[in-house]
Amino acid sequence: MRSRVTLVLAITAVVLGGVLLVPTAYARLASDDSGGGGGGGTSSVAAPAPTPPPPPTLAAGPVSVSFQGEFFSWALLDRKTGKISGSPNMTATSSTESMIKAWIVSDYLRQLGAKEPSAAMKEMARLAIVDSNDGAANKVYAAAGGSYKASTSSIPDPVIQRAIKICGLTDTRRGNVKPYTGFWSFTRMSPRDAARVGDCIADGKAAGQKWTKWVLDQMSKVKGTTAAKDQRPSSGGGRWGIIDGLPKSITAQGPVSIKNGWTPIYGDGDWHVNCLAVTSKWSLAVMLRYPIRTGLDYGAKVCASVATQLVTPQPGAALKVPQQPVGKL
Fold first, then answer.
1. Mean pLDDT in residue range 172-200
2. How far is Cα 206 from Cα 162, in angstroms, rounded to an integer?
3. How far from the centroid of its chain's Cα atoms is residue 51's Cα?
């Protein structure tokens, strides 16, 4: 008897509970309905997040430098489009100096293919870039098939011929300056071709699949300043120029690989200064000749100023070159 009463009470509770639960559930469903038909439901859609601006980079634009000297030219290569922009005289040439060492090392290593160089030669290749060591570069140049044979010919030696062919250079030729006839540093190159060499190194054609990353890494580790303590007769500090003109918003994106060239020994009374820098997005070259009395630091600041003026969006005013205005290019 007790069990029947219990069963009846349980059934009653379930029925009553269902009656109470159904309206509650229905009300919840109704409140969630955002459909039409005059149901009165509402919904809100979050506004899309604003698209962040592209990260800063270098792009074609006007460059104005108060320059006192014989030669000032620059070229910027957009590595995505292949387009080259620059000064009106970006096809004019000057001596490459140590800037060409990045190509010499790349040319030597590409010829090795998958083989490893000896420990001594690998160290020579490293020193040629990081310390701009002339003796080391000479050994790598010879191993790559370079020739110092005295000649009045304008035909480049095999190392430079390969640069012209592999990197698609159009303005480069052999340079002859007594008593250094045939020396690699006197190769005549335009800023347009120098920017192409930077791109050629970065895209892997110059050094090949195995060695490209290594070459770019050494170029990002270049050491030393323009200070006298960092400059020696056959090697010297080369970490200045374009790299100093780039804001942190660009350098923080990834390594900037550089190779500068500089010398005052021509006998023409000029510094010959070149700056080359390349990243995953662009390759920039600046080439200068100006009076020795002005100092190496002046050329470094001109290179930096060009880079700063090409930054987009502009972070601020461009670096000022500490010289009296003489003309604009």
1. 85
2. 9
3. 25
- Residue 93 to residue 72: CA distance in whole angstroms: 10
- What is the torsional sign of CA 240, 242, 245, 248? negative
Tokens of 164: 């012209």
Q: Is the dihedral of CA 82, 317, 254, 163 positive or negative?
A: positive
Q: Is the backbone peptide bond immediately before 313 cis, with ω within 30 degrees of 0?
A: yes
Whole-angstrom distance, CA of residue 146 vs CA of residue 115: 20
Q: Which residue has the tokens 């600041």?
A: 301
CB 86 within 8 A of CB 73: yes
pTM for this model (two decimals): 0.81
What would you report as the CA-atom Rg of the chain, rounded to the nearest whole angstrom?
33
3-state secondary structure the chain: CHHHHHHHHHHHHHHHHHHHHHHHHHHHHHHHCCCCCCCCCCCCCCCCCCCCCCCCEECCCCCCCCCCCCEEEEEEEECCCCCEEECCCCCCCEECHHHHHHHHHHHHHHHHCCCCCCHHHHHHHHHHHHCCCHHHHHHHHHHCCCCCCCCCCCCCCHHHHHHHHHHCCCCCECCCCCCCCCCHHHCEECHHHHHHHHHHHHCCCCCHHHHHHHHHHHHHCCCCCCCHHHECCCCECCCCHHHHHCCHHHHCCCCCEECCEEECCCCCCEEEEEEEEECCCEEEEEEEEEEHHHCHHHHHHHHHHHHHHHEECCCCCCCCCCCCCCCCC
Distances from the Cα of 49 to the Cα of 44, 46, 228, 300, 312, angstroms = 15, 9, 53, 42, 23
Which residues, in sequence order, are CB contacts of 167 under 8 Å at separation 6+? 103, 193, 196, 197, 199, 200, 205, 206
Distance CA 68, CA 75 (A): 19
The predicted-structure confidence for 111-154, as pLDDT tens digits, reads as follows: 999 999 999 999 999 999 999 999 999 999 999 999 776 555 66
CA–CA separation, 119 and 126 (whole Å): 11
